[in-house]
């Protein structure tokens, strides 16, 4: 089912775990090492099933890939420094809005980026997750990640005493 877009770009079909189909240019898909290898090996003709990625999450991933492919300059048409700065600012703004999602979606995006081996997307989503938890208390992190405290009160007091620097705000 590899198709060609009106502009002559080769397209591939991505199929989410719930059967929804998404078309993406090979250039945009190349942001994923997994998809790049499949394209190189001619394994995309009948579509690429992504059993670990739901349609809602895949729609976001496709949006990210398309935006980054559209804004990233092609080597032959490298723009002047002012245009490059404008594109970088546009991407920075897009990325900030892109990761402004609920925690569940953020973690699903991290899993999808990891599954697809999409390093830039993985870096973006993991950095946002780190930014979210960096100012949380231990108790808040436990609650967010559903971590059971298996220390006795005495053990916890000892750990806090030994690592007091880590608990200073």
Classified in CATH, the superfamily is Potassium Channel Kv1.1, Chain A
* Mean of all residue-level pLDDT scores: 89
DSSP strand count: 4
Q: For the CA atoms, what is the radius of gyration?
A: 21 Å
Biggest sheet character: 4 strands, mixed
Proportion of helical residues? 55-70%
Number of helices: 9
- The structure class reads alpha+beta
In the CATH scheme, what's the topology name? Potassium Channel Kv1.1, Chain A
Key structural traits:
single chain; 169 residues; alpha+beta; Potassium Channel Kv1.1, Chain A; 4-stranded mixed β-sheet; elongated
Provide an overview of this structure.
With 169 residues, the chain is of the alpha+beta class. The chain has one domain (3-134): Potassium Channel Kv1.1, Chain A, CATH 3.30.710.10. The protein is built from nine helices and four strands. It has helices spanning 26-29, 33-40, 55-71, 81-98, 103-116, 119-133, 138-144, 153-162, 164-167; strands at 3-4, 10-15, 21-25, 48-49. Strands 1, 2, 3 and 4 form a four-stranded mixed beta sheet that branches. Strand 1 and strand 2 (10-15) form a beta hairpin. Belongs to the SKP1 family. Part of a SCF (SKP1-cullin-F-box) protein ligase complex. This is SKP1-like protein. Pathway: Protein modification; protein ubiquitination.
């Amino acid at each position: 089912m590899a198709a060609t877009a009106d502009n002559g770009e080769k397209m591939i079909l991505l199929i989410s775990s719930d059967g929804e189909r998404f078309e993406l240019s090979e250039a945009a898909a190349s942001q994923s090492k997994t998809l790049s290898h499949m394209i190189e090996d001619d394994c995309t003709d009948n579509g690429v099933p992504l059993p670990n990625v739901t349609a809602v999450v895949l729609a976001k991933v496709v949006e990210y890939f398309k935006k980054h492919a559209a804004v990233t300059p092609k080597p032959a048409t490298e723009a002047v420094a002012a245009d490059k700065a404008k594109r970088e600012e546009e991407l920075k703004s897009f990325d900030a809005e892109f990761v402004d999602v609920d925690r569940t979606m953020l973690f699903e995006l991290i899993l999808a980026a990891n599954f697809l081996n999409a390093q830039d997307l993985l870096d973006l989503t993991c950095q946002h997750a780190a930014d979210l938890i960096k100012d949380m208390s231990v108790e808040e992190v436990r609650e967010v990640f559903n971590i059971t405290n298996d220390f006795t009160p005495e053990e916890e007091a000892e750990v806090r005493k030994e690592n007091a620097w880590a608990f200073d705000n």
